[in-house]
Amino acid sequence: xxxxxxxxxxxxxxxxxxxxxxxxxxxxxxxxxxxxxxxxxxxxxxxxxxxxxxxxxxxxxxxxxxxxxxxxxxxxxxxxxxxxxxxxxxxxxxxxxxxxxxxxxxxxxxxxxxxxxxxxxxxxxxxxxxxxxxxxxxxxxxxxxxxxxxxxxxxxxxxxxxxxxxxxxxxxxxxxxxxxxxxxxxxxxxxxxxxxxxxxx
Length: 201
Known about the structure:
Blueprint (H helix, E strand, L loop, with lengths): L3 H24 L6 H8 L3 H7 L3 H21 L7 H12 L7 H12 L2 H13 L2 H11 L8 H22 L6 H16 L8
Helix pairs in contact: 1-2, 4-5, 4-7, 4-8, 5-9, 5-10, 7-9, 8-9, 9-10
Keywords: DNA-binding, Transcription, Transcription regulation
Pfam family, one: TetR_C_14
GO molecular function, one term: DNA-binding transcription factor activity
């Protein structure tokens, strides 16, 4: 559970990001300066940089929070659920977008897709940067993530499949629930990873 200070900081970051994303959607990412974001959010540029190292981090905020939710969803899965199955179900839960939020999700992520550098950075963080999910997966598998590469491999494969499916949903129809597309993608790779559900000798 977050402290009161952490909650206030998270709320402030969300408000700055909401303002920035509206400007990006209206004028394009590269056409908006930090100074303009700060003015619209009624803060100073210095305050902006207390929350975000750069403009790119504003766009990646929601993705990073989704990664945190993924870890929470995974650790909350029933203990009797096999590791790979639990990770799949965590992805399905966190990629579920209610119909009344899909327009906002599309708008937010279209900004990310329109800037190749942000897209590449976000993909790298999704696939290779989520050490917390690797450690949680290793714990459920009963192995050491430092000496056993299987949790990192499984996490990277599942993340790549989920991220690709989600981005395809954004780029193509944007209709329906992205969790359905993610579920299809994970089913393609899950059978190959199921051997990891059985502890090694």
